[in-house]
Design a protein that fits this description.
Elements (H helix, E strand, L loop, with lengths): L1 H14 L58 E5 L4 E5 L5 E9 L7 E10 L7 H6 L18 E5 L5 E3 L10 E3 L3 E3 L1 H10 L5 E5 L1
Parallel strand pairs: 1-9, 3-7, 6-8
Antiparallel strand pairs: 1-2, 2-3, 3-8, 4-5, 4-9, 5-6
């Protein structure tokens, strides 16, 4: 009898177990990614930290840009097409799919690259944390970091071209103004562009 009771208890505990705790990078972090330079989170060590799992791989994309008139050494962001086109100083062009700002969060005009950072941190501003107290003071490099593995900082609007921890957002209007890229793409662009590169954001 005791054996039957123990067996029933074991089966009950197996069937009725506590659900696993799942932590998202942030709830609605993208509402705050456009206007603060750096980032905080997690006990993740510095690189290498991204597992090359399928969710981080970009789909096949023709990087041969359509014929676009732009000065050499210039980045053109075509907002409607969700496309970033970089013309190298020697005239070669590369096209990348991107995520752009949501309606009301977009910026248009001409600016320039002022700096670059590999494995950036993200620091929400005081106003962001006031709106969302769940935001930490700083998000360290790691899978939860909304900036991904690379960030290219622009002069105007505190905007950035950066990676993402949400590759499914590429090709959509998802951010608070920044331009998100697949990991492989932003790492390639990061190696090519230098501070001073002109950036033109078009409708």
């Amino acid at each position: 009898m005791r054996l039957l009771v123990l067996l029933a208890a074991a089966l009950f505990l197996t069937a009725v177990h506590a659900p696993a705790q799942v932590y998202a990078p942030y709830d609605a972090y993208d509402e705050y990614d456009g206007y603060g330079y750096d980032d905080p989170y997690s006990p993740y060590p510095p690189p290498p930290y991204y597992d090359p799992a399928p969710r981080y791989q970009e789909p096949l994309y023709d990087r041969r840009a359509p014929s676009t008139r732009s000065a050499r050494g210039t980045i053109i962001i075509a907002t409607r097409e969700h496309t970033l086109i970089y013309t190298t100083p020697w005239g070669e062009q590369f096209a990348y799919p991107i995520a752009v700002g949501r309606e009301g969060k977009r910026w248009y005009g001409s600016t320039r690259v002022v700096s670059k950072r590999a494995h950036p941190e993200w620091r929400p501003t005081a106003s962001m944390r006031q709106k969302n107290p769940r935001l930490p003071a700083v998000v360290k490099p790691g899978p939860a970091n909304p900036l991904g593995t690379r960030a290219i900082y622009l002069a105007d609007g505190l905007l950035r071209i950066h990676g993402t921890n949400d590759p499914s957002s590429i090709g959509t209007n998802a951010s608070s103004g920044c331009f998100r890229m697949y990991r492989q793409d932003v790492e390639e662009l990061y190696e090519m562009v230098q501070p001073g590169t002109q950036v033109v954001v078009r409708r």
